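Aim 2 progress update. The chain analyzed this quarter is reproduced below.
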Amino acid sequence: MEKRQKIVSWNINGIRAWHKKGASNWFFSNKPDILCLQETKAEPEQLPEEILEPEGYYSYFNWSKKRKGYSGVAIYTKKEPIKVVSDLGIKALDQEGRLLTAYFDDWVVINGYFPNGGGGEERLKYKLKYYRAFLKYVNKIREKGYKIIFCGDINTAHTTIDLARPKSNEKSTGFLPIERKWIDGLISNNYIDTWRFMKPDTVDRYSYWDMKTRSRDRNVGWRIDYFFIDNSLKNNLISAEIHDSILGSDHCPISIDIRI
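Predicted structure tokens:
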């Protein structure tokens, strides 16, 4: 039987700092069915009990194996998954703790913190390689009959209305044609960008702002955090939201309500 699920995704830019400054209170007061966090920057043994195992939730973590205090993702869920899988299964791409897949009855939730392409040509190549591998990964799960929900920090703005200053960022990583083309590919593979599906013409709504330039104060942002669902769930989607008034990170939470 289908049940309404509220699922939240948030790049929190460090789970210990996020919790210490009280930003985790939003999670505890809203109590979503599933919370997906990115850029946790910690290993489980570094976390206080109330974040490691919050009351009423099962918790799962993946973290960087090559560099401490970097990358990392977490999933908190009220319903216990049948299984949770870390990473893509490709050693060269699985050292930074970027992916968790939670399997439920006939559906999955995938939480990803996708690489940033900045820092030179090699890093952009790594990002694109990760993108290609992820699409194969998620398609393979769908071929097994699972309904797909995936979310996270994709680290790319798709179209000109997904960032405040598209013209001046035409040659910036995060808005390069080759990065945006990958999102085109997701959509052509019958994955739906839930925010754009529900709000096709909405502008000036973003999920990330550069803190160094205080760009949030001026709403000079980027929409680089997403929920995608496969086409079979299109009629199950109730709402998609960007919670841009919620502070605590250089990103804000995003969410969907969906019957599944």
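The mean pLDDT is 97. The helical segments are 15-20, 25-30, 49-52, 121-143, 177-188, 194-198. These observations will guide the mutagenesis experiments scheduled for the next reporting period.
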